[in-house]
Amino acid sequence: MLHRRTVGDVMTEEVVTLGPDTPIHEVATLLDTNDIAAAPVIDDDGAPIGVVSASDVLRHETGLPDPQGQEGDDERAWGKARARTAGALMSSPAFTARAHWTIPRAARELRTRHVKQLPVVDDKGLLTGIVTRGDLLNTFIRSDAEIRSDVERDVLGRILGLEQGTVTVEVQDGIVTLRGRVSQPRLVGVVVGLCQGLDGVVSVVAHLATARTD
């Protein structure tokens, strides 16, 4: 089996966190100093109970709720505009992810929830990291050298057991080109499918001959 990277592989483990009683001016300072777009708010046990984003802070500074008017008539939105602590300003509940989730599952969750980051929790619901849209995108933006190494080592070597040099691999801009010979016609589709399953692969071009069969 090919190793498909998970949330646990790409998440940030050292997370800047806030407490419910963290003053708003400290929230703004922490976000700015650490150059992050949001931070989870955790309880005394270390479980995320909400998230405060830079957008929340900016809305707070205007003294108004959602500037687009989406929550303008909502008392909670006006309460957030008057907030003095992270607990009052945060978006809650906190939508979370698990370390074993696949990258596509996490990406789908971000899109469904309309958020840019997800705190990652363990089986007890305690914070273990955070994953952002940027973390997920970086999974698919891999160097050609990394992709070529995965094809040669994992697909051709470990899984198919082909002798070195039987199939040559070229990768340019994520496009994998295979040249050589395989023993059976059915292996062409297998090789292509396995390569397409690698993170970062854009497409696969196969110039593979097969041994003649009587």
TrEMBL record:
Amino-acid biosynthesis found in the keyword field: no
Keywords: CBS domain, Repeat
BON domain span: 143-212
Domain CBS: 11-71, 90-146
Name of a matching Pfam family: BON
Source taxon at top rank: Bacteria
Gene3D superfamilies (UniProt xref): 3.30.1340.30, CBS-domain
InterPro entries with a match to the protein in the record: BON_dom, CBS_dom, CBS_dom_sf, CBS_domain-containing, UCP036990_CBS_BON
Name of the protein in question: Inosine-5'-monophosphate dehydrogenase
